[in-house]
Amino acid sequence: MVDVPSDHPGGFGRYRMTESHAADIAAVIAALRRRAAVPVWLIGTSKGTVSAVNVAARLKSGGADGVVITSSVTRDTRAGVGTVFDAGLEDLRVPTLVGHHESDACIGTPGVDARALIDRVRTARKELLLFRGGAGGASGNRACGPHSAHGYYGIDDEVVTAIAAWIKAAP
Fold this sequence. Notes:
Elements: H1 19-35, E1 41-45, H2 47-58, E2 66-70, H3 84-87, E3 96-101, H4 114-120, E4 126-131, H5 156-168
């Protein structure tokens, strides 16, 4: 897990969309590969999807082996981090898994946008996993929190198992 860089004490904000952010994550990927000869995947949830897509789209070499995005930011919000569409979704060239809860009511990540996401991904190996069940009914700011469909509350194990199986099936 990568946290906000020390030279950005105010948080990620629009930094998620920059070449500098991609370079930072490239350094993390390189360090991981020096430690172990295993595939490295970028996994982002909610605002983290903007980071994951930006990095995967920018790094033509030395990047991740695949990307998983869940509860993707598809609509601009007051947080102003941009969307996965702005971050280069169409430029992904690694296996890409899109996970979304059909009942996600978060203003920036509505479940109704999930199918449009996967249609914009052009890589050869891609898939959309739609989830149902668990917590529901949250509204307002709570709809974007971890105890809601946005956070897959109540179906966490199912979601993690499905993601892990998809990654393991990668050639």
